[in-house]
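Q: My labmate handed me this sequence with no annotations at all. I'd like to see what the chain might look like in three dimensions before we decide whether it's worth expressing. Could you predict it?
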Amino acid sequence: MTRVWQAAIYGCAVVMALSVGYFVATSPLQINDCIDNMLELQRQTLSELLVNQLHQQGYLRPMLWAALKVPFDLANGHYFAMFKAIHVLQLVTLAVLFVRLLGVGSVTSVLAVPLGLTLLFGNHTVGQTAMEGFPINTFLTVMICCLATASLAFGKPSIWRDAAAVVLFLFAALTVETGLLVWVIVAAAWIGGCRGASNRMLVATSVALLGYFVFRFGVLEAGMPSLLERSSGFGFRMLEHGEVAARFGDRPLIFYAYNVVAHTLTVLFAEPRHGVFVLTRDLLAGALRPREVIAVVGATGATLLIAGYAIARAGHWRRREINDHDRLILIFVAVLCGNAAIGHPYAKAPIVSVAGVFHALAATVAASYALAALARASIVRPAVIGLTIALTLLSGVSTIRFAALHFRLYERAWTNKNDWAHQGPTTTRWQVPDDPTGQAMIRRLYEQSMDLKAPGIEFLPRWMERYFEEM
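A: Here is what I predict for the chain of 471 residues:
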């Protein structure tokens, strides 16, 4: 593969990420959680934030606050520009690491890259995660750490790679609980025979994992989130945290098992959403919308493509003929299981965003393999026609889902601006009537939000709401 082609596919990744980043950068900072967090960052020093996080019940996230505090202080009042720049940089980094892991080396693999990127950003678990920021997108940070770890595992073994894997694990695990998937990736890569996943890397990250659990549950006794923490979907509707506790307080294992299954299914089939079987509910009620069908068809098509790849490669695996693309499939399966298990406290799409990223990676690998098979076919047979139609359909549906992310970001900008207009810069919602610095920061953010152009979806064609899925 020439450098021109390499530059072209990385350029494609950057452009597609920036297309999402544009809508992120032109949206006001969201009010929910974000402003409260920024007030805490303003009131406390870095050391105070870290110490306070060590006394939280149900969570252990000191690096999350460190990652918020450092850019907050460096922003020197330019908070909007700082946090939006970080958000866009995260999206670009995610796309570049995604392409890097694919190991593009043939024409068919090059052709699969655009499809893979639409699968990545069109995936609802990744798409919804890309929309959030409190004020930094911490789930996106963990996704980047996981992709970076996988990239280390596919390189040449070295001490610096082992050390980097430990650093990534500690940073990610102490940011959000899904950061524990860094260890899952190392373990799966080691089992699959990735060169960079050395014995040293596995042992070092395993020691770090053990230390994490001892520190969290033994020293700090932080425990796990209770059933009263958040609302969560179950069956055909959302349950508020009080309802969750009332229904499953004496049998939480049933609720946890449901969430594990729901997270697995939502990655593979885009149903349920946040634990709610939306398509099934609306179908039974006679209110099915095209966007729900498109989402399920897109996710299911990618899953079937992965299954087809596994069936085609099964004979090679039995003979222990395993390549790097096969190892990516193995890592995806491990991440899916681990991510679903970590997300047992409640059902929410961003929780399984790491699994969503590796689902897109595995589907891209499978698409590349399918395109290579079509290129080798000398006779047009029904199987060739069927595969061609399937790939074309998947490409079209994934493109619609990719466009849906842009539409929902456009909608989110309007929502955020309306929230600022409704709350105003002097509301007591944030409890800062006697805090001049807090008032000044909120007023500045309010003025910046009002200056942004966000015309709203009312000016767009009505069909977009029906065909572009909710994130």
